[in-house]
């Protein structure tokens, strides 16, 4: 009973979306859930059916008592056939191993992404506002900018290419 309550309490769509599972993993899990549900329905259907045979009733109804005696003999001799389920168990264990392997790979990938996001968040939190930045800070962050400015000064270029087109000419004269 507790397992039925636990299965009912699980929100599989949320699990699929939050864990970032692959399409094949989600499809395999959904197929497994469907097979499990079908097996439970069939089992409950057969469990509700009676399992005893009232031979006395058949003896009173039928004229030919030999048929009832033969049926009783067959019922007493009947033995339940047992099946070797090792192949199925191995298939389930293989599926489980693959699912665990994929889950571990997904967890490792999520851990790496989480560390990257935490580093980015820490960088954002530690960054100074734009108004507080100096030319030296920008130059230290991107040395190419300093090199480009030095080259332009050496060549005697005092305007930035494309500035007038983008921002217009701000001179009053």
Description of the molecule:
With 173 residues, the protein is mainly α. It is built from 9 helices and no strands. The radius of gyration is 38 Å and the shape is rod-shaped. The chain starts with a helix and ends in a 6-residue tail after the last helix.
Quick overview of this protein structure:
The chain has helices at 2-9, 12-19, 23-47, 55-61, 65-77, 86-126, 135-141, 143-155, 163-167. By secondary structure, the chain is mainly alpha-helical. Helix 7 (135-141) crosses helix 8 (143-155).
Count all strands and give the number: 0
Tertiary shape: rod-shaped
> How large is the share of residues in beta strands?
under 5%
Q: How many DSSP helices?
A: 9
Please tag this protein with its features.
single chain; about 170 residues; rod-shaped
Compile the SSE list and pairings.
Layout: H1 2-9, H2 12-19, H3 23-47, H4 55-61, H5 65-77, H6 86-126, H7 135-141, H8 143-155, H9 163-167
Helix pairs in contact: 7-8
């Amino acid at each position: 009973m507790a397992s039925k309550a636990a299965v009912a309490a699980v929100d599989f769509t949320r699990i699929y979306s939050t864990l970032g599972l692959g399409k094949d993993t989600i499809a395999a899990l959904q197929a497994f859930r469907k097979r499990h549900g079908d097996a439970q329905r069939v089992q409950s259907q057969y469990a509700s059916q009676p399992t005893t045979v009232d031979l006395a009733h058949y003896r009173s109804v039928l004229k030919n008592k030999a048929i009832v005696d033969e049926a009783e003999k067959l019922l007493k001799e009947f033995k339940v056939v047992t099946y070797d389920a090792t192949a199925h168990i191995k298939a389930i264990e293989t599926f489980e191993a693959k699912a665990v392997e994929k889950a571990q790979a997904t967890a490792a990938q999520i851990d790496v992404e989480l560390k990257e996001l935490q580093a980015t968040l820490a960088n954002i939190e530690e960054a100074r506002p734009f108004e507080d930045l100096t030319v030296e800070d920008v130059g230290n962050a991107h040395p190419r900018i300093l090199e480009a400015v030095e080259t332009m000064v050496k060549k005697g270029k005092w305007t930035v290419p494309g500035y007038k087109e983008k921002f217009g000419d701000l001179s009053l004269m």
